[in-house]
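Lab meeting, item 3. Inverse folding demo.
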């Protein structure tokens, strides 16, 4: 009899616990209160093409570094500020100091290309969207890059030069440095170089050194990558698998450990979709999307002219252009005459 009473009490307690759990899961309107992550809307192919337009014509390994690093936007900001604050470091000294930093290998790799790193920092809203897209739809991003390369080729603006080799590999367009020790970052207007004009990404800020007015492609500074080759994050460790649709790091598909764009609700850094005002963030005003960051700026002592660059050890000076592009044609109006901001 006592056992039956105990069993009855136990069953009653279980029922109460279950009832409480159910009550906690529903609000008075009958709707569930359980927090199930809602999938973010997938970007259309056209939106992805607009997103990758500024980098689609870069060498394959550099694209791999950029896409991987874009999933770490906080570190991008830190790295760019650090590089600009240590412009006295050159060559092997720079590489050794970069190696000590706590950044992801992809972010460290971009220290070899300060103008690219600066572009990602100044256009942080775009970088954030790029990281979100690559983290959650690498296939779509990869296809978008190949689509834009094909359009640039059809427009007569993508072919092999003294600076880079453009080849077809099983239906994919590969871009690699002509000299493996010197990497040239192409300069072009991402909204004009692909033939039919593309609507510019909202708030896009053209960073000197990698933006060229007109409809063609030019090449400015060549970055010597030899000093960085001995480190695990250096140039030779990166590539892109166009058929596997993934950035490659150390012969394996790159895996980002950043939770910034985790759509399961682990967006610790608040860089998820919608965290930025795409209309004005980092473009002529102090966007509210990043912790206290100001509008695009140049550190004191850095040059912001059309020919500016960070002459970290090994850089090869020079410029060549082809087709209808030339620095003489002037830069996009966004440079405001090439003065300081």
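The presenter then showed the designed sequence:
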């Amino acid at each position: 009899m006592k056992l039956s009473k105990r069993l009855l009490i136990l069953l009653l307690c279980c029922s109460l616990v279950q009832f409480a759990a159910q009550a906690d899961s529903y609000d008075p309107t009958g709707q569930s209160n359980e927090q199930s992550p809602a999938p973010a809307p997938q970007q259309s192919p056209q939106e992805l093409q607009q997103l990758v337009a500024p980098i689609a014509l870069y060498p394959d390994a550099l694209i791999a570094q950029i896409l991987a690093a874009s999933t770490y936007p906080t570190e991008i900001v830190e790295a760019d500020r650090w590089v600009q604050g240590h412009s006295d470091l050159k060559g092997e000294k720079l590489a050794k100091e970069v190696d000590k930093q706590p950044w992801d290998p992809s972010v460290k790799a971009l220290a070899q290309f300060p103008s690219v790193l600066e572009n990602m920092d100044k256009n942080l809203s775009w970088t954030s969207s790029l990281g979100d897209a690559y983290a959650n739809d690498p296939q779509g991003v990869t296809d978008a890059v190949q689509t834009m390369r094909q359009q640039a080729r059809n427009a007569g603006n993508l072919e092999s030069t003294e600076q880079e080799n453009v080849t077809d590999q099983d239906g994919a367009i590969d871009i690699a440095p002509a000299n493996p020790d010197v990497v040239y970052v192409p300069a072009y207007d991402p909204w004009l170089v692909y033939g039919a004009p593309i609507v510019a990404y909202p708030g896009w800020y053209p960073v000197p050194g990698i933006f060229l007015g007109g409809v063609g492609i030019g090449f400015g500074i060549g970055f010597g990558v030899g000093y960085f080759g001995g480190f695990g994050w250096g140039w030779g460790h990166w590539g892109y698998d166009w058929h596997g649709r993934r950035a490659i790091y150390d012969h394996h598909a790159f895996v980002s450990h950043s939770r910034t764009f985790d759509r399961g609700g682990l967006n610790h850094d608040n860089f998820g979709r919608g965290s930025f005002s795409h209309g004005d963030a980092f473009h002529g005003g102090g966007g509210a999307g990043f912790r206290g960051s100001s509008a695009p700026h140049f550190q004191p002592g850095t040059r912001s002219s059309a020919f500016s660059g960070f002459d970290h050890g090994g850089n090869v000076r020079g410029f060549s252009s082809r087709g209808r592009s030339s620095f003489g044609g002037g830069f996009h109006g966004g440079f405001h005459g090439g003065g300081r901001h």
